[in-house]
User: Fold these one by one.
Assistant:
Number 1:
Amino acid sequence: MGAITRRQLLGAGLGAVAAGMLAGCSTPGTTSVNVEPTIPPATGKRITLTYWAWLKDLQKVADVWNAQNPDVQVEAVWIPGGNAGGYQKIYSALAAGGGPDIAQVEMRSIPEFMLVNGLVDLSRYGAADHAAKFDPTLWGQVSFDGGVYAIPQDSGPMAWYYQHPILEQIGSPPPTTWSEWRELAVEARAAGAYLDTFPIGDASVFAMYATQAGASWLRVGEDGWEIDMTDDATLEVADFWDRVVDDELVTTAYGNFTPAWFAAAADGGIAAVTGASWADALIQGVAGGEGRWRVAPMPVWPDMGYGSSYQGGSTAAVLANSRHPKEAMDFAVWMTTSPEGIDAMIEHSGIGWSPAADYIGSQRQRPSDFFSGQNYNEEVFVPASKAQNPDWVWWPITQQSFNILSDGFRRKASGQSLVESVRQAEEQITRVFRNKGLRIRKATS
């Protein structure tokens, strides 16, 4: 991602938005974590760290650490997913002066928590010493002008999952470009299958495609935020999917991994899906699918963009009220970079792609019977994880922005184009920024 200073973040009128982000909460009762003294490590006594997350069976991961670190124990507490109530719970705890030592926070939500002084700058505890252990793009998502505001926990590099018997029936290899994908979609429809879905009610999927094409919708300049959702890359992607949907080459009747999707995939009505690394576990729920699925690289835009994109991605963030931030950081780094931590996260919690620079997990280093004996993680996802757009930056009202764009996309059914919806969303998002006291202007090339 581009270099963004905390001074820029806070100097862009962002302090005024804090109350809006804490909807339903009072302002956190903490002073800025940037001016508080570094809290020394605990010595000579046993401490217990609390970790709020929506990962399943996270305590089993913590227990591996606990067995090796009797003086620093970790207690995992399950909370709902971020926008399903988890973030509200965290914000409320911060406002009350409490909360856990560590919380699962999506990468796209880090700026929101920074703006309410909810996160510890881990650079004060030696976080930079661990940077080389992590994928550089993911480390960039949590780093701001020398500060480090979370530890990457997992991500979701993208690839193309497909049922190879259907492609063999058509007589086509996996597409390497999006133009080839469109040609294959036409042939798939003739064979009675859809090549994919396009969820018009979830704009985050469109953002995934735009990210791959090289878009960077918002960034922070010296005088505030700069917005550009009508760049060439975004409009080309929007026009592409406008034509695909208009020609009924994908279905918009249901989304991926819904009951209708699983039924269609099982009977050959869905031939493929563009999905993140974590989609493999979901695809294995397709009845009779073993040996029918394979994985190929995500199709690319030949004249622009990157080899892959990413969907999802979380962090282990140390919250401002933690009394043991150094120990919390040490646990988070162990969990996300050590072989035993990564293997435990995969086995018990089903995490997405490991953020570690040099270890993907032992379970992901061998062929898969379900995916036709293919060693797809090493063959496809390792290269995909290194082919990301490093300039994409998340912004303080990401979810609200996606809601605005999704509302526009739903009007596709009544004749409004995706291109029109993107243009309108840029205007609406700009107004929301200004209504919240944020300085924003149209970016210039």
Number 2:
Amino acid sequence: MEKQDQWASKLGFILATAGSAIGLGAIWKFPYVAGTGGGGAFLLLFLIFTFLLGYPLLVGEFTIGRHAQSDAIRTYKKLAPHTWWHVTGRIGVLVSFLVLSFYSVVGGWILLYLIQALSGNLSGFSQAEYGTLFSDIIANPAQTIIAQFAFILLTILVVAKGIQQGIEKVSKIMMPILFILFILLVVRSLMLPGAGEGVRFLFVPDFSKLTSQTILYALGQAFFTLTLGVSVMVTYSSYLPKTQNIPKSALSITLLNTFITLLAGLAIFPGAFTFNIQPTAGPPLIFVVLPAVFENVPFGSVVFIAFLLLLLFAALTSAFSMIEIIVATVIKDQDQKRAKMTWLIGIAIFIVGIPSCLSYGVLADFKMFDKTIFDLVDFITSNVLMPIGALLISLFISIKVKRSTLMAELQEGSNIKQGFFNVWFFLLRFVTPIAIILVLLDSLGVFNRFK
């Protein structure tokens, strides 16, 4: 058995892991849920929950991942042999496979829009016409399937190269560009006439808008914006050397992700208020509303191309982590198998994703439980399996793994004190599971029965 590949540098690990967390959800979902939750009040809750609940779980995943130095499934087998806890890793692998199957569809849409924008065919339309254009693009079976495959192909080519030469190397290029593009977009957005109103909406809490639903949305966003609950972070941390400071690395990633989330709000809300667009527009915001917004600002087409590149990079860095957890599980440290298995897994994901790709075209009328195939796969993974996975991981770390093992692993590369450990362990064992259960029950609509 070959020695497991490792991250070449602390920066590479942080950028790759932050890239995993900074996906399309952070960029388009946060403005949507913040818009429905009242802006500033939602943001405040999101920040509190991210650092009080998300950060402890991230530290926990890093701790068991580095300790076991193995893939998602064998990590649980090593730490709890002859038990059923390995199911936790299996859920993570399944979720990553299913999520990437429909996530690649959206990645394909971004590629199609980028091609349209670069060729100059994405300008001069009204918002209604942009809506028609989007509907036409996603309903075209041939071009959406080709675009979906192109997105998967980009993912395969990077992950097949390995941790250092593939994921880390590309993340070191993509992530800085992503940050630069985002900052340029925010600067341009803040120059718009309605920027002040958008900034106030985002940063000034209006607690009269707070509802139990808003609180649960903020809880869910805090957990899943860090890619928690699918053992992706367990897999990524398995490539960490013992010299890495886990609490500091987790904090850096949490801060980076929070920073990007804030930038997403600052990039979108000023434009929304300037052009009288509801901040609750949701997913169509990216493909229908924003092109119309950029149409009305100087050099708008260039700015929109930059935004699409940013989206593409964010989507790809998340896709790398999703396919990596599957590849790592299959090759079992035998890196000579990496390239072949990455191709096989990538093609399998592409094939499984085709029905989701056709959900807005030839399969638009085919529905199960009143949902299209795309929406059903999204609901099962995001609303059911991910919360269950996060709950199992938090319980596994705090109940099954010895406290002495956790403390010893956390102290490798750091000088944490007993006080930090006690607070972290208390949050992980008692507070985080309750919060996850509430999110899961809300996702399943349990609380709707009491309204």
Number 3:
Amino acid sequence: MSNPRPLEEEAYDMSGARLALTLCVTKAREGSEADLDALERMFQQLGFESTMKRDPTAQQFQEELEKFQQAMDAREDLVSCAFVVLMAHGVEGRLKGEDEQMVELESLFEVLNNKNCQALKARPKVYIVQACRGEQRDPGETVGSDDIMMITKDSPETIPTYTDTLHIYSTVEGYIAYRHDKEGSCFIQTLVDVFTERRGPILELLTEVTRRMAEAELVQEGRTRKVNPEIQSTLRKRLYLQ
């Protein structure tokens, strides 16, 4: 019986090009420029070719992502990883463009899946969504213990259409995402701090982001609020950015 391969070997090849696309509605979203500056610094440090577009309409969210996909598929060199940052006002499952029209997140996510983007087939796609997902506000709860669950699954010979994707939302379903009018959003600023300061697989880094945000005390409308990101992963391997 052969020995199983150690987990450390199961990492994505990051030797090729790293690409990032940021689509950000700044209109009526004070503090957005601070987030854009932080993201630009992070992508530069992590070796990403970064493209940013301010104030896209709902249709331009879709069009810019499709252009991003087409440019990747036209490249002759290897693409190792892509980050897509989407920042706007929103509700669950939808973002509001600069023109006040809504775009479906699912239609944006589909553009880079294993069927539609050959350059990223079986390669990591990371979506960062800074937007509200509802109107609820979380005052916080008292807890006594942590629950930890790990699920592992052998990688099949063929891969499903929607693997190798990481969705990182600034807040959980139904809740508001907070943003400071000068310092930017707690989520983006914390994520950039952790991604540039720490080394390790991205899911471990995101656990640290969640820990820091969970410990933070946000004051909104004169009341203390709690907020934490939500991470949805179909990654099949470890993803190292450093």
